[in-house]
Amino acid sequence: MKIKGIAEATANAIMQEMERNDRIVVLGEDVTYWGAVFGFTMGLFEKFGRKRVIDTPITEQTFMGMSVGAAAIGLHPVVSLMFVDFLGAGFDQMFNHMAMNHYMSGGQFPMSVTVITAIGGGYGDSAQHSKVLYSLFAHLPGFKVVVPSTPYDAKGLTIRALRDPNPVIIFGHKLLTGLPFLPFEGIEEEVPDEPYEIEFGKAAVRREGSDLTIIAAGLMVYRSLKVAEMLQKDGISAEVIDLRTLVPLDEETIVKSAKKTGRVLIVDEDYMSYGMTGEVAFRIQAKALKELKVPIERLAVQDVPIPFSKPLEDAVIPSVNAIYEKAKKLVQ
Amino acid sequence: MLIKPEPTIKDLGFLIENNGIKASDLLNMHRRMLLSRYFEEEIKRIYNQDKNPFNMAVGVIRGEMHLSIGQEAVAVGTLYDARNEDAVISTHRPHHHAIAKGVDLNKLAAEIFGKDTGLCRGKGGHMHLFDKSTNFACSGIVGASFPQATGVAFAFKYLGKDNVAFAFAGEGAANHGTFYETLNIASAWELPLIIVVEDNKYADSTPKSFTTATTFHYQQGLATNIPSYLVDGMDVIDVYIVAKKAIERARKGFGPTLIETLTYRYVGHFEGDAEEYRTKGEEELWSTVDPIRRLESKLLKLNYADVETLNEIKEEAKKKVNEAINFALNSPYPDPSEAFVGVFA
């Protein structure tokens, strides 16, 4: 079937897994009529009803904590954290419990929880509703961190998450959801009707190239692909890698590409310092330093909150032009 | 005695009979309270013996140590009718709950000592005890037990089981947002949850009166339409009578109960606590209602046991404790490589 954007594809994956596994329940704010606002649970309520698709009060710490308790007894909660920005309200239950109970219990209590959250800006929602924050979770041992960019990936990675005994957080970019009330920078593509899994820790080479490697995730993959096309006209061949999962990280693919092109630009919509760009750069230099022709470059949100006003927001979130300028400079 | 008149022996006999309590039940409760008391007294002794001057990082038992000496009746009374599959989510002060739930004493001791034979192979420690075999868990984060037990109760209901989840927390945790959130959702969804507030008067060092607007937390339960009770936490019979009804109610699908217990810890918030926030006089007053001595005297007056039997029970408990401590002391530490496994299942 043809699916536009990652939201419907994610919902389709959850639906098929719920049919297969009656221990999956969906919890969170507005998960019934509103499909978790960004569409990740669309259609589930109509199919499974309130017994399995459950609107919670607006109490992040309670529904995250409930997921910890329910997973301990063998359920697989799918929890919608409407905006990743709301993480603060429920973070204790996530990082002190969900991420650690398996380890602290000496392996007795696996935490089979899938958290789905919406990330990113670019539509004027300002500082408290536009963050990305996946690096924060990737920093904490115990979470698997998934950033789908295509409908095909969204379905396959979500099914993989729902079969994983560990806490997996799926970060879906709002501008890739394909919902009518938001700008759309993603794609519509053919997605298999039947369930399928995409393995975690396998990056996708979205475009092959020889002069430069651009590494990105989520929305930034599309902006990087546009840049690769622009560079092509300048006679520069850029390879674009979509990380797909930050934990586990596909070191092999990125190192291989860095060795091939000798030039690396890492593009990230999360904050720059102590984040994904630094981690990926470290992994590359540790294994490909000799092959690098120039120092690794990065582009990310420069450690400021996402501002409201359009010219300010555009200046902060890596744009096609900003990526293009950086990439061009790296090759010259 | 703390809330209601202390019954005469005649009235006590009626009360016990009326609630279907047998002599053997009271003797078992006595055994469990003693086991918890002796176990913690021994932990306290060993914890402190090699910390002079006091230093948390040294000694056979490292880190913080929160003991529940004085609060045994709360754990034993509430959990006496709990089944093995019923779940307990406890707190940073978890030993009495663990023992009352039937967690293996040897493995419990070994975990507190950081040994490979411990419940969690030494990865949790005294504040992070987990035991899948008795559905027991706890958290060192104040207020964290409420939503987790709510999730367990949700899972029991979803799976069609007649099991019950218990959330234990101190009166300090009842000021946390999770408390109200849990009362609200457990009541709205009629979950098989029993919330036990152990009011030992002090949140760490802070007297309840300085931080808490209500005198009693059971009042907050009533506001969310939850049957809520205030009980004498130093009287295991008073605790048990309410808990028994709460458990029956939850098993039948009638929803949650809040039990607030008035209790007292005879020791500091943690070992090493100078306890400058309370008076000796208060401690002495509460020692007159020691839950173990109170039950002991009732057992004698009711003719459920003689002095000799009580002594045998004491010896038996001491023996179990010694076995557990020796098991822990003689167990090996985990191999350092164990630190790097188990982040993911």
Structure description:
The complex is a heterodimer of chains A (332) and B (345). The radius of gyration of chain A is 19 Å and the shape is globular. Chain A has two domains: 2-190, Thiamin diphosphate (ThDP)-binding fold, Pyr/PP domains (Rossmann fold); 204-331, Rossmann fold, CATH 3.40.50.920. The mean pLDDT of chain A is 97. In chain A, the strands form three sheets. Chain A has a seven-stranded mixed β-sheet with strand order 3-2-4-5-7-6-12, sandwiched between helices. A five-stranded mixed β-sheet of chain A has the order 9-11-10-13-14, sandwiched between helices. A two-stranded antiparallel sheet of chain A has the order 1-8. Chain A is an alpha/beta fold. Chain A is 36% helix and 20% strand. In chain A, strand 6 (144-146), helix 7 and strand 7 (168-173) form a beta-alpha-beta unit. Chain B is 44% helix and 11% strand. In chain B, the strands form two sheets. Chain B has a seven-stranded mixed β-sheet with strand order 2-3-1-4-5-9-8, sandwiched between helices. Chain B has a two-stranded antiparallel ribbon with strand order 6-7. Chain B has twelve helices and nine strands. Chain B starts with 8 loop residues before the first helix and ends in a 15-residue tail after the last helix. In chain B, helix 2 packs across helix 3 (72-79) and helix 2 (23-49) packs across helix 12. With 345 residues, chain B is an alpha/beta fold. Chain B has one domain (9-331): Rossmann fold (3-Layer(aba) Sandwich), CATH 3.40.50.970. The model of chain B has no long low-confidence stretch (mean pLDDT 96). Chain B has helices at 9-18, 23-49, 72-79, 95-101, 105-112, 145-158, 177-188, 218-223, 236-251, 280-287, 291-301, 307-330; strands at residues 87-90, 130-131, 136-138, 165-170, 193-199, 202-203, 206-207, 228-232, 257-262. The interface between A and B is large, with 42 and 42 residues.
Give the arrangement of secondary structure elements.
The complex is a heterodimer of chains A (332) and B (345).
Chain A: E1 2-4, H1 6-20, E2 24-28, H2 44-48, E3 53-55, H3 60-72, E4 76-83, H4 91-98, H5 101-104, E5 114-119, H6 134-139, E6 144-146, H7 151-162, E7 168-173, E8 188-190, E9 204-207, E10 212-216, H8 219-233, E11 238-242, E12 245-247, H9 251-261, E13 264-271, H10 276-288, E14 297-301, H11 310-316, H12 320-331
Parallel strand pairs in A: 2-3, 2-4, 4-5, 5-7, 6-7, 10-11, 10-13, 13-14
Antiparallel strand pairs in A: 1-8, 6-12, 9-11
Chain B: H1 9-18, H2 23-49, H3 72-79, E1 87-90, H4 95-101, H5 105-112, E2 130-131, E3 136-138, H6 145-158, E4 165-170, H7 177-188, E5 193-199, E6 202-203, E7 206-207, H8 218-223, E8 228-232, H9 236-251, E9 257-262, H10 280-287, H11 291-301, H12 307-330
Parallel strand pairs in B: 1-3, 1-4, 4-5, 5-9, 8-9
Antiparallel strand pairs in B: 2-3, 6-7
